[in-house]
Amino acid sequence: MKRGFSLIELLVVVAIIAILVGVATPYYADYVRESKRAKALQDLDVLKQAVVLYNSQEDFPYLGILSTDTTLLEPVPVPGENDFNGLQGRYLTFIPVDPWGKNYKLDPYACFVYSEGPTSQDSDDIRDYYIKDLALVRVEWEDSDNDRSMNANDLLYFHFNKPLCCESLDAADFQIYENNERASSSIILGINSTNSYSSETTASSSVLVTTVNNTNNVKLGVHSLCLDGNLTILRKYKEVRIDRKLSTDKNVATIVDKNLLGTPLRYAIRTNPIKITAK
Prior knowledge:
Mean pLDDT: 88
Number of strands: 15
Shape: elongated
Number of helices: 2
């Protein structure tokens, strides 16, 4: 005589299955979340390499889709949903969509590609930098009076590897070297800032311009400069990223990421001394 399951036995089986499902579900959710993140990172690496290749072969770095406003003095990127369309063909065979069904984005000021993540909040952005650290990369001298001497009213151009925000560019922010050794205190970099760099909501240039003043005795081809390693000074030179909500086709708004104490999350690093070259 065959015997079937009793109601109690069926209830026990159902309860066991429910417990197993309850235990397994968080692990499955974690697996799905990590799989999506891994896929996003793979896509971002492809997009990053395309931007790096473009920047190495073209005369002007890739900024995304540019404004068509002919009254603007320089190209202005227009943040949107098609930031990578300008790379398709030569640098990208196809433009992927992130695992949450949204388009990947480009920030040509902070120099990273990113996904807005599952919630489109800044807190869960997935970023991949193609220029990671903000750094001084070149210092150029313009001989305004053509006397072949770095003196009053000549210009010095401080080139950084990406746009930045700086409260004020001061001579005291730099260390001076001569023949690979720290120069004596009698060697003075005499400069005056000619631009205002304090705005954290307007796109900043990657080149900061100063005029040379009468106290200067730094010489072209002899001395080299680098940012001082003091954190207070390095934090003056802050990374900016695009504020997509406030940007328009005429102006790119930027923002500085800060912690709760108001300290920038990303700021300049100290590099080896850089020789001053003629512009």
